[in-house]
Amino acid sequence: MAERLARALDLDAQSAGTHAVPGLEMPGHAETVLRERGADPEGFLSRRVVPSLLLAAPLVLTATRAERAHCVTMAPATAGKTFTLRQYARYAAAIPAGPLTLREIASVRGRLQPGKPVDDDLEDPFGGPIEQFRECAATIEGILRLLASRP
Question: How many distinct helices (H) and strands (E) make up the chain?
Fold first, then answer.
């Protein structure tokens, strides 16, 4: 959902899962929720994250700390540009208005106390009721709106 919500906000995004089974369509609840939010779910197929994708990305945002650790383990050179969505939003909120750079984010990362898992992890709604997908999408969209407002 994050990829398609980002694209709806004119943010360049690609998604890949740390444990994804390649080639699967997204769950029906995810499609419904994306349409409710004005995002286009058409044509989505899952793919697994690979080191080359991580290395090519200017920024890597994950849903959980475990996924972040997986990505950094897979491509150690990405450690400075890999965050959970919630972690990145917390760091961005601590920076005065203006464009965000990895240098500014890194300086905030060094000053703020580490978050608790509940502060940094986004709960996966997979297999749950549509309301869990709605809550997850609302959280993601709120974070992405913050990022879109801070080019």
Answer: 8, 2
